[in-house]
């Protein structure tokens, strides 16, 4: 009795494909790639330009994290202008240089601001160059004055903040900034 082999026989030369299958494959690849490119942005454009740009929510656990987008602030303060004086109900933003894609971020430091005086309403990242990976930008921490009083927002800029890999050394110096906030009519 002659047994038939169950193993496929090797071919002496590769099977030729028709031009139609090559065109079909190229079209499928192009459609797949164009679908992936549209999904990268998460469906929501990033704000650019000025602090009045619309906000986008973030889910990070750092100072740049916020559960909600915020309204356009009435005033913007930065590291050179840390004495903040606003009226109750007024919206304001704290502006800081940012580069989280390089591992640096701003985190809220103790003591936390008095929530009876000021409330955090959101945050916005504005990139200087949206085409360049790792490009620096600006972080806007949005707040609203709640009632008369004084408090402070102390922020720490560090490398890999809050992780097991957080570093503070001469290559990764820690910076702090404290905004002194006075709310009065």
Automatic annotation (TrEMBL):
Residues 47-73 have a biased composition (Low complexity). Residues 86-164 form the Proteinase inhibitor I42 chagasin domain. Keywords: Protease inhibitor, Signal, Thiol protease inhibitor. Residues 1-18 have a biased composition (Basic residues). Residues 1-23, 36-81 are annotated as: Disordered. It holds the Pfam family Inhibitor_I42. Residues 1-39 form the signal peptide. GO terms for molecular function: cysteine-type endopeptidase inhibitor activity. This is Protease inhibitor I42 family protein. It comes from Streptomyces daliensis.
């Amino acid at each position: 009795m002659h047994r038939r082999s169950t193993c496929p026989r090797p071919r002496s030369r590769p099977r030729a494909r028709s031009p139609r299958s090559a065109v079909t494959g190229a079209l499928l690849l192009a459609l797949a790639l164009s679908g992936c490119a549209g999904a990268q942005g998460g469906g929501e454009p990033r704000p650019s330009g000025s602090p009045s740009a619309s906000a986008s929510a973030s889910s990070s656990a750092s100072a740049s994290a916020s559960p909600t987008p915020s309204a356009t602030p009435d005033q913007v303060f930065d590291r050179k202008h840390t004495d903040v004086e606003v009226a109750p109900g007024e919206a304001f933003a704290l502006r800081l240089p940012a580069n989280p894609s390089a591992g640096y971020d701003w985190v809220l430091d103790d003591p936390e601001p008095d929530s009876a005086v000021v409330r955090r309403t959101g945050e916005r990242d504005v990139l200087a160059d949206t085409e360049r990976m790792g490009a620096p930008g600006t972080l806007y921490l949005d707040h609203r004055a709640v009632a008369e009083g004084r408090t402070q927002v102390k922020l720490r800029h560090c490398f890999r903040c809050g992780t097991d890999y957080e570093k503070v050394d001469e290559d990764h110096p820690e910076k702090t900034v404290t905004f002194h906030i006075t709310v009065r009519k």
